[in-house]
Design brief:
Structural class: mainly beta
Number of strands: 38
Mean pLDDT: 77
Largest sheet: 9 strands, mixed
Strand content: 35-45%
Oligomer: single chain
Length: about 525
């Protein structure tokens, strides 16, 4: 008889937040011990959705905390290790993480080199001289008051990609009009020799932020190999509008696969009493520990999704606006007087050129002009048009490497002779837009503080927020308004409370001047 695993502990690991711009590694670990709960699933085999069962014998009697070790060395990067201790489920909310500050940590290579890792704060120990190399085996040794913990890992070659694609759902007929829908499907193929059994770790970066809770692993024995590759989608998150998405893949050993396989199930909540009860991910540091050490060489591939655009008809012109993205340097506009635009439709190149951090204006080859001020909304005036004639638009974006996106959902408008035309958007003042917007964690758990400089002519302020980037003010984002709109007060600095510490929150500050709402650039933060 086979008995499915008993629910011993629930491990929630908020592992690694790597900022791709400055390459600085930060890591925070949260572990919640849960008393033994006997969930007898039955004397049955555990199959179905669960990819693999890994037995972990962790005693639960009189356990107050467990040592948590998370470590990595990446190709051409130095090693890091973070050490902390779990907290009891009875610990008050907001209890600080209990980091180990006095360990002695050493990295050794199979070729005979070694170095001590230096403590840098928050339980983090970092190397300085040994950089990761494919084919090398690395050993991390940790000495805590004479107790030795050790793990090793061999860096396997980066797998490489055959390609990646993104498809607009509106193109597939899931959104008939395409006027505001911004959903996308993605597919990508990672190389996978069919004569070998391989396992892979996948990481997901969105607009430069490592979406840690979306990391996942796969065993190629459970996926059909086609033309020496695995055709995959990310099951943990969809792609949204205005995102620069980087997929990273690394071949890993079995114990690292086992760790991430169960970690993913716990984070995603896909294990339950009707299937297999979750247990802590297996550790390669030995008995009485949780965590993982891995030596990894990643292959990377990027896909781009454009922002949703809006269009307003004015006298003899249409004004197109959309949120900018620091990872996109050029914006190309497709247009026609008939709907159903494709990549073969007429195009105006570089209506916005955002090569510099502060943005640069662009001038289309039809004489229209665009502006991109301080990373806020891009604005383009399509001029010299025939009033009351419909014009349709789709946007394409390009990154610094020349990679281009699919086209945005189609929108349309007719120039309206009854609406006075704005002046040249490139010459318009941006005083009506809140500037210098920042979002930082608050003094207490579950808080984020949003600050901004006043906007000229603003009668009241509001804050649009979401847990996804690409806020437009027209979708399902939450809105917090002060003044006449809600009877409250929204002013800088504003503290947003009652938040989930494990989530990232995105914000745009809105100013209302009595006739129109003006949105700031988008910022984000995660509560402490």
């Amino acid at each position: 008889m086979v008995l499915c695993q008993v629910f011993k502990y629930l491990l929630i690991f908020n592992q690694l937040d790597r900022n791709m711009k400055n390459k600085k590694n930060r890591i925070h670990a949260i572990l919640i011990n849960i008393s033994l709960i006997f969930l007898m699933v039955g004397f049955i085999s555990c199959d179905g959705f669960q990819e693999q069962i890994v037995s972990v014998d962790v005693p639960v009697e009189n356990v107050s905390s467990v040592l948590v070790i998370n470590a990595e060395i990446e190709k051409e990067e130095t090693a890091w290790v973070q050490i902390s201790y779990s907290e009891s489920i009875n610990a008050p909310a907001g209890t600080p993480v209990n980091y180990e500050e006095n360990a002695r940590v050493t990295l050794e290579t199979s070729s005979g080199n070694s170095e001590p890792l230096s403590y840098t704060g928050n339980g983090m120990y970092e190397g300085s001289s040994i950089a990761g190399m494919v084919g090398e085996t690395y050993t991390i040794t940790i000495d805590i008051n004479g107790q030795i913990y050790s793990a090793n890992s061999t860096m396997l070659p980066e797998p490489g990609y055959q390609g990646a694609w993104v498809t607009s759902l509106s193109d597939n007929g899931k959104d008939g009009k395409g006027s505001s829908y911004g959903g996308y499907d993605e597919e990508w193929i990672v190389n996978d020799p069919s004569n070998e059994r391989n396992r892979y770790l996948f990481e997901w970066y969105t607009n430069g932020r490592h979406d840690v809770g979306r990391d996942w692993a796969i065993d190629d024995n459970r996926v059909v190999n086609v033309n020496e590759g695995l055709r995959l989608i990310n099951p943990t998150r969809g792609i949204n509008a205005n995102e620069y998405t980087v997929f990273r893949a690394a071949e890993i050993d079995k114990i690292t696969y086992d760790y991430y396989n169960m970690y993913e199930k716990i984070v995603r909540g896909i294990v339950g009493a009707d299937a297999q009860t979750p247990f802590n991910p297996v550790s390669n540091f030995g008995e009485g520990t949780m965590g993982n050490f891995r030596a990894v060489a990643f292959s990377s591939i990027a896909i781009l999704t454009p922002p949703n655009i809006s269009v307003t008809g004015q006298n003899e012109q249409n004004v197109i606006s959309f949120p900018l993205n620091d990872f996109f340097v050029k914006y190309h506009l497709y247009l026609d007087t008939s709907p159903g635009l494709t990549p073969n439709s007429p195009m105006i190149r570089e209506i916005i050129n955002n090569d510099s951090k502060n943005g640069g204006g662009g001038k289309g080859d039809d004489g229209g002009k665009g502006s991109a001020g301080s990373g806020e909304s891009g604005i383009y005036a399509h001029t010299n048009l025939v009033n009351n004639t419909m014009y349709y638009y789709r946007l394409e974006v390009e990154d610094a490497e020349g990679t281009v996106s699919v086209l945005s959902p189609e929108v349309g408008a007719a120039p309206d002779p009854n609406v006075p035309a704005d002046g040249d958007p490139g010459d318009k003042p941006t005083g009506s837009v809140p500037t210098n917007v920042t979002a930082v964690p608050g003094a207490n758990p579950g808080e984020i503080v949003i600050s901004w400089d006043p906007a000229d002519g603003a009668q009241q302020y509001g804050i649009y927020w979401s847990n996804q980037p690409g806020i437009t003010g027209e979708g399902k984002e939450n809105a917090i308004w002060g003044g006449d709109k809600s009877g409250g007060v929204v002013e800088s600095p504003f503290t947003h409370t009652g938040l989930d510490n494990s989530l990232t929150y995105y914000y745009r500050v809105a100013s209302y001047d009595g006739s129109a709402i003006h949105l700031s650039e988008e910022v984000n933060a995660q509560p402490n």
